[in-house]
Every structure is written in structure tokens, then in C-alpha cells.
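Sequence, C-alpha cells reproduced for reference:
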Amino acid sequence: MAAPSFDLIDVIRTIQKRRTFILIITVLCMALGGVFLLVKKKKFKAEARFFVNNPLYGDRNTLFRSFETRYVDYWGGDDDLDKVTALGNSDTVRDRIIRNCQFQSIYKGGDINNDTAHAMYMSIFDKNFNLKRTEYKDIIVSYIAYKPQDAANVANMSVKVLEETFRHYYTQMKGSMCFSINAKKIQLDSAINTLTDSLANLRDKYGIYGIISPSRQNMVNSEMKGGGKGFGKAMEEVQNIESVKDQLVTDRSHYISLLNEFSTAASDTIQYLKVITRAVPPTSPFGPSVQLVLMVTGCLGLFFSTVFVLMMAYYKKLNEALK
């Protein structure tokens, strides 16, 4: 037995006959969408935007150029943006953000030092936090929260923590160099003091007070007075010790200069991120508008009710054909 036909004319007639049912279902779906909007807790989204500065502009080789003038761009390149993005996605940075923002007070999930509560806060942050680059080489940081002020505070704190972490990466290395150079300078101070005492004893013992160091350039050696057994050897010892001491004094002055340069470049006053838009508490909730929700739910109700009506009409016609 052939299946009964159900063409376009039958579809139109069925829809016309059951249009009241379809309209009721559509209105009910729109009403459910409106109730969902009323019941659903509102969320707010805050955004902050910033540029990444070129870290090389604050380097000692740029601050104290003495050999050549080389152009260094103010703006950070793609590599710098990638590093900031990687830091923003790291657990270390996110842990500092949730602690600085007092997530235990915002979400009331228990002590943040508890492993279970801490994991919950990190999960909440990961779900609501977003960091993305734009085609203009700036970075947008956004956060979604139930309160507008909380959303703005977390977004601004994220930028602050990112800047501190990114800056600390460079200043920590420069600070380590300062520590190493300063330790070497202290060693040189001790060695110079020892050589100074030895030279003073030799000069007082043999009466040698002239400048006889061969390492001092453009110096005319003064006339040596005195004599006796051991005087010649004493002069040689004074020259040897004096040459070593002069070199150590030169190295010490060079280390002091380097120490000043590295300490200047490691200053926290140099900012590595430039905020161009601070996050402010949003005035409207995040998500689709009322009109969009009603339109979508109405279309869904219309579609499924129509499909249901057509299927029921076809099965009814099929059952009649089988009798």
C-alpha cells in the first residue's frame, strides 16, 4: 500500500486549522523566556585596555648609550604581547588576583587557603576572566561578576598584577646583576685595603713616597731618594703592588658605574604596561537583551509547534489510510 500524500497544500491547511494552538505555544515560549530573564541573576561585564611598552627602552644599554645611537621603539612587539598573554593565563598571576580581590568575600566559598575553596575560586575566575589581543596591538582584559563594582575591581586588579609581574621579570634579573656586582665590589674593597696597608708599610719603612707605579699613564715618575741595602727591591715591590692596586681601583670604579646603571634600570618607576582604558562599573547587565530573548524563544516556539502540528496531522492521515 502506497503512503498517503502530504503536499504543500496539506501543510498550509494544517497550519491554518491549528494556528490557534501554534500561537498559544509561541506566546507560552516567549513568556517562559521572559520569566527566565526575571529569575536569572544578572551579571555584569567590565573591561580594561592597555598597551605593552617595549622593555628594552628601560634597559641600561638604552638609558646610557655611549657608543652608538640606535632607535628603540616605544611600543612592545608581538613577542612582548605573547609574554603578557602567557603571564595572564598562568596560575601564579591568577592566584595573586583572586587573593588581592578577596574572592572569599565576594563568592562566600570558604577560606581561600583551603584547597577545595581555592580550586573553586580559581575555577570561577577562569570561567569569567578573558584576555585577548586586538589588531591594534593592545590587550583587552574583561571580567564578569554579579556586581558591577566587583567586575571593575577584578579587571583593574588583573592589569595591575600583570604589570607588576611583567616588570618584576626584568627588574629581578637586573637586581640579581646589581647584587653580583656589589658583592664583587666588596671583595675589591677588601683587597684594595690590604694592598693599601702593604704599600703604606713599605713606603714608611724605606721612605719611598714618589709615584712610581708603571700602570699610571701620562705620569712622570718622581725622583727617588734614599738608598741602602734592600732599597732597590723595595722599589720593585712598591711598583708591583701599586700596579695591582691601581688596576683594582680602576675595576672598582667600573663596577660602581655599572652598579649605578643597573640600579637605575631596575627602578620600579619604569612602567611596562600603559593603561588606556580603566574598567568602570557597567550600568547594564551582560548578556542578550530582552527583545532578543523574546524573539529567539518566540521563533523556537513557532518552529517546534509547527513541526509538531504537521507531524500529528501526517500520522493521523497515515492511520486513516491503514484502516
Q: What stands out?
A: The longest strand covers residues 44-52. Strands lie at 44-52, 129-133, 138-145, 273-277. The two ends are 11 Å apart (CA to CA).
